[in-house]
Design brief:
single chain; alpha+beta; Rossmann fold; Methionyl-trna Synthetase, domain 2; Isoleucyl-tRNA Synthetase, Domain 1; 4 domains; six-stranded antiparallel sheet; five-stranded parallel sheet; 21 helices; 41% helix; binds zinc ion
Length: 698
Amino acid sequence: MLFGIRTINQMKKEYKRILITAALPYANGKIHLGHLAGAYLPADIYARYQRLKKRDVLFICGSDEHGVPITITAENEKTTPQAIVDRYHELNKIAFEKFGMSFDNYSRTSLPLHHSSAQEFFLKMHRAGILKEKIEKQLYDQKAKMFLPDRYVEGTCPTCKAPDARGDQCEKCGTFLNPTDLIDPKSKISGDTPIVRETSHWYFPLGDYQQRLKDYIDGKNTEDGWRDNVIKYCQSWFNDGLQDRAVTRDLQWGVEVPLEGYKDKVLYVWFDAVLGYISSTKEWSQKNGNEKWKDYWTNEDTKYVAFIGKDNVVFHCIVFPAMLMAWNDNSDVKYVLPTNVPANEFLNLEGQKFSKSRGWGVDVDEFLEKYPADSLRYALAVNMPESRDADFYWKDFQAKHNNELADILGNFVNRTLTFVHKNFDGVVPQLYELSDLDTAFVNELSFKPETVGNLIEQYKFREAVLETMNLARFANKYFNDSEPWKTIKNNPERCSTTINLCLQAVRTLSVLFQPVMPGVAHRIHSLFNLPTTSENFSWNNAAKLELKPGTKLGIPEILFTKIEDEIIQKELDKLNVSSKSSDVQVVEIKPTITIEDFKKIDLRVATVVECEKVPKSEKLLKLQISLGSETRQLVAGIAQHYKPTDLVGKKIIVVANLQPTKLMGTDSQGMLLAASDTDGKLVFVTTAGEISNGAIVK
Ligand SMILES: [Zn+2]
């Protein structure tokens, strides 16, 4: 059995440089904790680790700024797509900086450099005869003079007959649709009924690359750190057979198709977005006045690692490699394909999916105003959704911060430094002969960088961080077992050795924790008054006993202040409130009225005296109400929400001066006030305390 085992190092190809990309976030909303745990934190841990290994690393990202959701947001907000992407590009860039992302370049796909770069790819494929032109039928808005992308059309669902199905999908029954499937389609731009018109588009023949893509993926395996779920996902695409994909579409916002007769069309966002990695690297080269982007992208000594969330697997393992193959077949300049595509599963929040529309989320910006970025990074890392979905729980975040960061790591650093300042004048004490206990500790230290490093090389970030915290645990135990508070009195050389080794371990921890907690690592490291850029801050030297006796040490500060229960409870309360207030969706507010307009409405408090159903009606209840001086009958459409007995004796608010009417043959003298939301929930309006019938509401 043993002969068959290949060590990772023997198998590793020697790469000269590492190109790291993290999925381009879509500039149509703010990034949330789920995104951070999915693509960004693992990429940053990996990049920082490789830099500590003194490897040649380039870490690239940027905003994905094209596509229909952005133009729809712009329409809704009555502004331009550029204004939308400017806003979210800036917000997300700042959030990433606060979170400690160490991108070498953070670009955006609306830049001219990206447009020309993406057009170059399109033209290369077009001139090589790879792309196929197809004539198809699409809905056209004659008033707005434009073809309507799927989400710009609404109509009746052919499956469930829901009245407001979108052109791409019916939200009610979930059926995927083409805009031409809709019954009675309406343009969301003009409200007109669109006509069917022919339009031509270019397609990329993905199926032609199936065998080569399959060979590419088959050559990857879990021993190289490829995730099993990524490989399986690709295989299921191959089993279904790869289809032609439209490269162009009828839209104004995006990268213009560089062909005569196609000027009113743009490249499909799937085509241009992945190329954003290349143009971001080109931008980095421009800024730095070099041509090194070519080394990273077109030299086969490059290891290219593309970090993404699982929803992006098809684009990075199938579509993007196929595009690069198509380029490479027709050019002397050959791009490298991803060496690995570590895709994480999803992170949920307190057992539910993050949802912007339901208000179920945690704002990254707000989070980092209140809590340290490093604590968030640690909590997300030890709970990373690497092989299955995971959850962020507020109480768990508190526990990780208090019980692990403060009580284990913070405690070890603090007790060691405090001891040195109290007993050794704040300088590193001498190392004397090692006891068995010392030797075991030194051994444990010496193996850690390689153990943790191998886990990171295998993209097992969770385990890597757990292993690192285990070293802090072990160090605390060593401190306890060595009892320096006793040996300082009866065996000073022993005590000196113990504390020397504890300080060496503090330094080791500051290096090993640097990829996940860069801020904390630097704070600890600065206690040693060593230049951080030197070999002192390198992974390979992390466990060497390099602290020289006599080195003056800084004064320790509390690394982690505990987070109190009340603080966390507030966050939970807020989440409940915001999830309940999800009913408050953005609705059009009616035109302004004057106070005089409002005063025309006579609102009064009343008590329901009697209540019964209106015969033969599912919706109506007949109420007898007391307005104090008089009793009236009114009819309300609330039978699907209340039983008659629910209402008797209740205070309600009525419009007392509404013109009387008949509903289902029953007289109604007034109207009951009720609140309803878009989910169809309805509650009647009542008073917060006792007040007499007939009281005026104003
Ligand atoms: Zn439907």
